[in-house]
Design brief:
The chain is 52% helix and 6% strand. The protein is an alpha/beta fold and 395 residues long. It has 3 domains: 84 residues, no CATH class; 119 residues, DNA Cyclobutane Dipyrimidine Photolyase, subunit A, domain 3 (Orthogonal Bundle); 116 residues, HUPs (Rossmann fold, 3-Layer(aba) Sandwich), CATH 3.40.50. Strands 3-2-1-4-5 form a 5-stranded parallel sheet. Helix 4 packs antiparallel against helix 5, helix 6 crosses helix 7 and helix 10 packs antiparallel against helix 11. The protein binds flavin-adenine dinucleotide. Flavin-adenine dinucleotide (FAD) binds next to helix 3, helix 5, helix 9 and helix 11.
């Protein structure tokens, strides 16, 4: 098994999966044959998450192969990602709340030995629940879990093991190769019963046996019922802010980051005279996640050189703010364009960079793709209210 680390590998992966993206996907996508044996799902999420492949090109390829009707299920699943990203973008308090709660819970974990012991058994895969223990190890070893495994894992974590969902989300985020602030946090919230009021996801032994093709016995008892938590105060709706377009008249550089690694397909609307990217990713990811993300970043930097004819300078991630100032000065830039980064750590970092650059009279201008412009405002309520935007996205 190998997850695509470059755009060329991702395109090859898409090409190989396309014959199965039609009615076969709709019929079989919930079946999980296990690591190294999966044929019913694409395993393209790490590439799509960093936009080595854009949602748009993946959806169009599926339609070209099968027609819209047969590819609809695959496209709808793909659009869950756009929905979650748009939802968090327009309800950013959900991210702030999660980060704040996680801090408190991590402090409690450091104080409370019994909680720490239960947490350790779960993440090491030593709970005695065969499927859960297998998935716990699979997650750490491979950085990937099938969607059904993610749902069941999260459900067992919350309702059987009675661990805080925020700790599970943070553990996933550290290990998943496709870790996405929106898809991950909001999916955990959905399983916990916080995202759709009054509805949570309860893992059932029989469903796990069936979807795993009998790989697991699930003889240890799972929670029989799940009580949705009391509703939280609603997160205020923050309408999508229009972004000012880059000024085509001023000397402009490009900054590349891991939220969007297909800079060739963004309509920048300016002539670029220099390009830069961080030399590594930030945060504290597990080693396989760091490895894959940094190979993808190297690949995009090489494509910038080939496509725009600009050597992509690598700036020290740990000192990004002063390094960006140096980059702007070296090339006498007044403006740096960069792909839009949705709510999450990269967006936080870009805000700090923008503030520092502004002190030098340099503007950091973010450019949002048409896909996100259309999808995000439609994602303020549930997925069913979002679905009618699909024809416009694909028009
Ligand atoms: C608790 C939990 C946490 C999750 N965390 C993440 C995450 O951090 N990053 C992430 O990309 N997905 C996340 N998902 C969604 C989903 O599990 C993965 O996108 C999917 O399993 C990836 O495998 P695949 O590429 O083989 O998917 P396929 O079935 O081949 O689907 C094609 C693409 O559609 C998108 N997609 C499919 N299902 C979903 C979904 N339910 N939500 C969002 N996008 C979807 C992905 O980009 C995927 O690559 C999470 C789901 C759960 C239940």
């Amino acid at each position: 098994m190998g997850f695509a680390a470059t755009r060329a590998e991702a395109l090859a992966g898409l090409e190989a999966f396309l014959p199965r993206a039609g009615r076969a996907y709709a019929a079989n996508r919930n079946r999980d044959e296990g690591p190294g044996a999966r044929t019913h799902v694409s395993e393209l999420s790490p590439a799509i998450r960093r936009r080595l492949l854009t949602e748009e090109e993946v959806a169009r390829a599926a339609i070209a192969a099968h027609g819209f009707a047969a590819a609809e299920k695959f496209i709808a699943e793909l659009c869950w990602r756009s929905y979650w990203r748009g939802h968090l973008e327009t309800r950013p308090a959900l991210w702030v709340r999660y980060r704040r709660d996680l801090q408190h819970i991590e402090a409690e974990l450091a104080r409370d030995g019994r909680l720490a012991a239960r947490f350790a058994l779960a993440v090491q895969g030593k709970t005695g629940i065969d499927c859960f223990d297998f998935w716990a190890r699979e997650l750490v070893e491979t950085g990937y879990l099938h969607n059904h495994a993610r749902m069941s894992f999260a459900s067992i974590w919350i309702f059987t093991l009675r661990l805080p969902w925020q700790l599970g989300a943070a553990h996933f985020f550290r290990h998943l190769l496709d870790a996405c602030p929106a898809s991950n946090t909001l999916s955990w919230r959905w399983v916990a019963g916080l995202q759709t009021v009054g509805k949570c996801y309860l893992a059932r032994a029989e469903r796990i046996r069936r979807s795993s093709g009998g790989r697991f016995q699930v003889s240890a008892p799972l929670a029989e019922s799940a009580t949705p938590p009391p509703p939280e105060p609603p997160a205020p709706l923050v309408p999508l802010r229009p972004l000012p377009a880059p000024d085509p008249q001023v000397p402009t550089g490009l900054f590349l980051h891991t939220e969007d690694l297909a800079p060739e397909s963004i309509p920048w609307g300016v002539t670029l005279r220099a390009a830069a990217a961080p030399d590594r990713i930030g945060g504290a990811p597990a080693a396989p996640k760091r490895w894959l993300a940094e190979r993808a970043l190297d690949d995009a930097a090489a494509r910038v050189a080939a496509h725009f004819g600009l050597a992509c300078e690598r700036l020290p991630e740990e000192e990004l703010e002063p390094a960006m100032v140096g980059f702007a000065r070296r090339h006498r830039l007044r403006q740096i364009v960069t792909a839009f980064a949705p709510v999450g750590p990269v967006a936080d970092r870009l805000r700090a960079v923008a503030t520092r650059l502004a002190q030098e009279g340099v503007t950091l201008v973010t450019v949002r793709r048409r896909w996100d412009e259309l999808a995000f405002p439609a994602a303020t309520r549930g997925f069913f209210a979002f679905r009618p935007v699909l024809p416009a996205l694909l028009a």
